[in-house]
Write a structure and sequence with these properties.
Blueprint (H helix, E strand, L loop, with lengths): L54 H5 L9 E2 L2 E2 L1 E2 L10 H13 L10 H21 L7 E4 L2 H16 L5 E5 L4 H14 L2 E5 L9 H7 L4 E7 L11 H10 L3 E5 L11 H4 L3 E5 L10 E5 L1 H6 L10 E4 L4 E3 L13 H17 L1 H20 L4 E3 L13 E6 L4 H12 L1 E2 L1 E3 L4 H7 L4 E5 L6 H19 L7 H5 L23 E8 L5 E8 L5 H10 L5 E2 L14 E2 L4 H21 L4 E7 L35 H12 L12 H12 L3 H12 L4 H12 L11 E5 L4 H14 L8 H13 L14
Enzyme class: transferase
Pfam family, one: Aminotran_5
InterPro entries: Aminotrans_V_dom, Cys_dSase_SufS, Histone-fold, PyrdxlP-dep_Trfase, PyrdxlP-dep_Trfase_major, PyrdxlP-dep_Trfase_small, TAFII28_dom
């Protein structure tokens, strides 16, 4: 077992304080630390294979969080590309700082401040040694790698880029490596150019080489992809870039924790990494920059410690790295980062890399053996090494459903989503993926547990025969067997906690209610659209208020009838998929209801005809010259609702009529309706409007939807947007949020939507 505790709990005898702070210029006294204090221990001798003597088995006891059980099962943590777990040595270092020498750095003359300063600068030296920097002054502590990239973008980019200059990136970059340069490009006129992938799904470095020219001023590139697991030849890329006079910024967040990184050997100009991915604490990262570049860059932030002298009309600035570390830094976190480097060095980065290559290949082969699984990135071989992560998708199963099921049923933690790499996922033709990522404390047994749980997940979702359409479901008189419900946890970060109730009328005199409660995202296809339409994702499908377990919020979807029809149009496949996909996360109950007394014999929607689903027809209008009082009485009976509120009455026919009437408003009628809505919906005006459109039409629809928490926007805006989307759709696939956003922005640019309202949905 590795026992690394206490590495920074006591001041080593080899650590010498060279000087005391100078209160006039504290930054000038940059504490030097004997290299003996940060020399790496001898690497740990381990079995490179995956058996009981492997690195994972030896180091696992050092990580307290891995010893726990969740839901009665051993925690299997496979989300290390997002953040790593912390060994006891790191936790102790952080606690020891706060318990024994908590003080500010570079300021005080007392013992606590001097000790804190020396430990802080010792951590900087450890980082420099860890990546083989020429001097510790080339290491700037930041909050994280994102801030480090922004520092380069604003301090170097704004000072060195001009209109027409080019910045070359790949489509596989993390958002943090793209967005700051978009800001800089907008302000300077520089051009961003992106390198695509090869057929093997790795960035095409030959195309990158072809893109380089004298206009290229910077190349921004990852060392290891957090999605594809590809490892790029940074030394080659740097050499090509330097040949045309360009600088190179390397995102090493996924490489520094897992392999030997030598900035001298790579010759990179800038390199960034985050502590929390290398077994260190959150809240701190670092920027490596060649000193001649850092010394020529203006400050990033202003404040204490980054100055030399301050006058009323101007200031002079300290030398790097103090110039870029304004204010009180994350002292305890830096010290704990130093402890994590001691821990990693004690194992040996080459040992970590060798072990993880074996484990990565085992994970890749195991995943590829699972039917209907698609793993992204290159195939490992003797010449192609993959990092210890796999992003994948399973046919017909949403990645968030996979991650949710693995977590709640098997205590296996993986990531789902776009992994802060939306452009890459768009390039791959998917919205999201699931990702399992390893570290040296993972074992072969962790991978086996994950694969077994994944097979169980796939079998679970495949166990339901798809319901081809709602009409078939409606006309089925048999009552399915009740499914036992087991409580599951709700993850509010997914923003898709849902409660559904579906009320469906058959063509005969019977009616069924299907109620199901879903936590997590097991109706992901619906959520993909809905969570971009709703300001709150508490969704109710149905008309019976007794099914509502939460009070409705804000406006109801009935006020936005075109969006109602938009959702209805895709509801057939959505409902079929959601009812097919899950039993355990749902609470499903089928209840026989009394015969409906509101059947409409003149309705021309056939519940057994799939062609009528998702569309509604207005029935034959009654005679206009009928008795006026009878007509008003009939209207009152069938409507029984105030416009502007449009509360469902529990009667599907009545609620459906209101939805149908509003859905068929012309633009002029909708304008009048909006006017009525703002004036409080006087009944006489509304009746006149309805009569002019429908007479005494009888309306029927197979199912209705009531959605709470709609983003507050004018009816006309949403209706017009929905009309554009529905008119332009050329396929029958699901409605995507991008369809709504694109249509809305186009209408906004065309001036068809007032500028005074900016719905939260499309900001």
């Amino acid at each position: 077992m590795i026992t690394m505790e206490g590495l920074v709990l006591k001041l080593p005898s080899s650590l010498r304080i060279v000087g005391r702070p100078n209160h006039n210029h504290p930054h000038h006294v940059f504490r030097s630390v004997s290299l003996a204090s940060s020399s790496a221990p001898a690497p740990l001798s381990t079995d490179p294979k995956l058996g009981p003597g492997s690195l994972g088995h030896l180091t696992r006891p050092d990580f307290p969080i891995l010893h726990q059980e969740l839901n009665g099962k051993k925690l299997v943590y496979l989300d290390n590309a997002a953040t790593s777990q912390k060994p006891t040595a790191v936790l102790n270092a952080l606690q020891n700082y706060y318990e024994t020498y908590n003080s500010n750095v570079h300021r005080g003359i007392h013992y606590l401040s001097a000790k804190a300063t020396d430990e802080y600068e010792s951590a900087r030296q450890k980082v420099a040694n860890f990546i083989n920097a020429s001097q510790c002054r080339e290491i700037v502590f930041t909050r994280n790698a994102t801030e480090a990239i922004n520092l380069v973008a604003y301090s170097w980019g704004l000072a060195n880029l001009k209109k027409g200059d080019e910045v070359v990136l790949t489509v596989a970059e993390h958002h943090s490596a793209i967005v700051p340069w978009q800001f800089v490009a907008q302000r300077t006129g520089a051009v961003l150019k992106f390198v695509s992938l090869t057929e093997d799904e790795v960035p095409d470095i030959e195309k990158l080489r072809e893109m380089l020219s004298r206009q290229t001023k910077l190349v921004v590139v990852h060392h290891v992809s957090n999605v594809l697991a590809s490892v790029l030849p940074i030394d080659q890329i740097v050499s090509w870039a330097h040949d045309v006079g360009a600088k190179v910024l390397v995102d090493a967040c996924q490489s520094v924790p897992h392999m030997v990184v030598d900035v001298k050997g790579l010759d990179a100009d800038f390199l960034v990494a985050s502590s929390h991915k290398m077994c260190g604490p959150t809240g701190i990262g670092f920027l490596y920059g060649k000193y001649e570049l850092l010394s020529a860059m203006p400050p990033f932030l202003g404040g204490g410690e980054m100055i030399s002298d301050v006058y009323l009309d101007h200031s002079t600035y300290a030398e790097p790295p103090s110039r870029f570390e304004a204010g009180t830094p994350a002292i305890g976190e830096a010290i704990a980062l130093g402890a994590s480097i001691d821990y990693l060095s004690g194992i040996g980065m080459q040992s970590i890399h060798d072990y993880e290559v074996e484990l990565a290949n085992y994970l890749y082969d195991s995943l590829c053996s699972v039917p209907n699984v698609r793993v992204y990135g290159p195939t490992p071989s003797r010449t192609v090494k993959r990092a210890a992560l796999c992003s994948f998708n399973v046919e017909d199963v949403h990645p968030t459903d996979i991650a949710t099921f693995l977590d709640q049923q098997h205590s296996v933690a993986i990531r789902s989503g776009h992994h802060c790499a939306q452009p890459l996922h768009r390039y791959l033709g998917v919205n999201a993926s699931a990702r399992a990522s390893l570290h040296f404390y993972n074992t072969k047994e962790d991978v086996d547990d994950f694969i077994q749980a994944l097979n169980d997940t796939i079998s679970f979702f495949a166990s339901f025969k798809p319901i081809t359409n709602i009409a078939q479901f409606c006309s089925n008189h048999s009552t399915p067997t009740h499914t036992q419900h087991r409580p599951v946890l709700c993850n509010p970060r997914l923003a898709n906690q849902q409660r559904f109730s579906l009320a469906v009328e058959g063509r005969f005199s019977w009616r069924r209610n299907v109620k199901f409660l879903c936590y997590s995202s097991c109706v992901s296809s619906f959520c993909d659209c809905a969570e971009n339409i709703l300001s709150s994702i508490t969704v109710f499908v149905g008309v019976s208020t007794t099914c509502f377990s939460l009070k409705p919020l804000s406006l109801k979807l009935n006020e936005f009838p075109s969006v109602l029809l938009l959702l209805l149009e895709s509801m057939e496949n959505v409902m079929a998929t959601s009812m097919k996909k899950s039993k355990d996360p749902f609470e499903i109950a089928f209840e026989e209801q009394e015969e409906s007394h509101h059947q409409n014999p003149r309705a021309n929607v056939n519940a057994t005809d799939p062609s009528t689903l998702g569309a509604v027809s207005i029935g034959t209008a009654g005679p206009i010259n009928k008795n006026k009082e009878d007509e008003e009485e009939e209207e009152e009976e069938n409507m029984d609702v105030e416009f502007g509120k449009l509360r469902p009455t529990g009667d599907p026919a009545k609620t459906a009529k209101m939805q149908e009437i509003l859905a068929h408003f012309t633009e002029e009628q909708m304008s009048r309706y909006e006017s009525f809505r703002r004036s409080g919906f006087q009944k006489s005006n509304m009746k006149r409007l309805l009569t002019s459109i429908t007479g005494s039409a009888k309306i029927s629809i197979p199912m209705t939807i009531v959605v709470s928490g709609i983003a507050k926007m004018f009816v006309g805006e949403l209706v017009e947007t929905a009309r554009v989307v529905m008119a332009e759709r050329k396929d029958t696939g699901p409605i995507r949020p991008c369809h709504m956003r694109e249509a809305y922005r186009r209408l906004k640019l065309d001036g068809k939507i007032p500028k005074k309202t900016v719905p939260r949905l499309f900001r």
